[in-house]
Amino acid sequence: MKTVGIVANPAKEGLAEAFGLVREWSLRFGLDLVVDERCSAEVTGDVRRAGSPDIENEADLIFAFGGDGTLLYAARSVAELGKETPIIGVNMGSLGFLTQIPREELPDVLATLDPTSLPVSERMMLATRLEGEEVERVALNDVVIARGAESRMLSFEARVGGEVVTRYAADGLVLATPTGSTAHALSAGGPIVIPSVEAIIVTPICPHTLSIRPLVVDPDAVFEIEMLSSDDRTVVTTDGSKAFGVGQGDTVVVKRAESRTQLVDVAGYTYYEILTRKMRWAGRVRER
Predict the structure, then answer these.
(1) Residue 218 designated active-site
(2) For residues 238 and 130, is the Cβ–Cβ distance under 8 A?
């Protein structure tokens, strides 16, 4: 390992202190540091600044300062370069499910973090494209097909290996990884799937029938979603960012991506503890 990169959300507070801590840690191990140029005002001293995708291309380890959106952005950027650079998420905001390290715990984490022995959790990603096109977009959390604000209900047919799975009449469809099962898919009524269980979770958004339920399938399944009823305001997003628009007759292909995201797991909490702390996934049974 030679270079440490920092990508950050410039709107977050406390960046200057966090930058300083990582700079000291990098110097201790003789590592070069390159910092997100969008945060130049928060950086002091002789530190190299760069933008995306230069940081993701050069860095052997990436710190993502911000919320989950910052980490997802870094993960997509790394994957689009064909790399699998480890990423450490530092939560500079409120929730931060993927950015597990609260900023106040960063000094303690860095005190024991050894760049030569990083505890990494591999996460599967999804790739999507419009049928007939070669350009793929990748996602760590989810691929979502959704209608525009003024669009009508969508209808589409989902196929796997040419076999019809079902037809949906809904406001949209979420295809999520286990990592993304606690994001948009959960809000749409999907299940929580532990990240170590690789699968694709398919959850309709506001389906217009009681018989349609979320589906968990083989991670190697290749989905073809043909738009039976749509308009030019329907979009496909990857991790919340617009990937491309779709119209009636178009087919969206979604499958496991070749790239994987390497998340450095140094938070010291189990996945179930994170669910309890972040999602308040705990209740108390009333005793009689």
Answers:
(1) no
(2) no
